[in-house]
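Q: My hope is that you can spare some time for a protein that puzzles me. Underneath my words sits a plain record pairing an amino acid chain with its backbone structure tokens. Those tokens are not coordinates but codes from a learned vocabulary of shapes. Thank you; the sequence and its tokens follow:
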Amino acid sequence: MTTQRRAPSGQGPTRRTGSSRVRTTGTTRVQTRTRARPAPTRRTVGVGTGPAKRTAAPRPRALTGRATVLIVVFVALALAYTYPLRVYLAQKSEIAQMEADQAAQRQQIALDQQELAKWKDPEYLRAQARKRLSYVLPGETPLLVINDPAGAARESGNKAAPATPDRWYDTLWSSVQSADAEPRN
């Protein structure tokens, strides 16, 4: 069985190579493998060169070429589907509006048919003629009531109907004028 471990420096996995050991436990024989670690290496600094300089590791790029191309393709597809989607939604709302208009027209047609059926009834025709045109049957005396209080007062010989009361601001202004007209003591 091969296991991978990280080196103490935090860098990638190291492999151990080594010999296998045989160990006996009771009647069972178990074979285990041991791996030898490579000897650690030391960096040596030149005696006269001064402290070692740190070098910056290359940073991985945020976007690779493939990722950039993939993003451009997705954006192009999104832009390509935007217009047809907008047209589809506009047509769908237009169809819904037309269906609502059609339902309203059907309802109006049903109401008009009911009204037409009423007008075909002779009793309804007579009632409408009396109401709208003031028709009377032979032998009836028509009585027409007109609401004219001033004319009624003139005919009866009484005084004219009382005038409408003044508006509040006219009353207020007339009281200010009468207070101004009084002599001062």
User: Anything to note?
Assistant: The radius of gyration is 54 Å. Strands lie at 5-6, 13-14, 20-25, 28-33. The chain has a mean pLDDT of 79. Residues 32 and 129 are 118 Å apart (CA to CA).
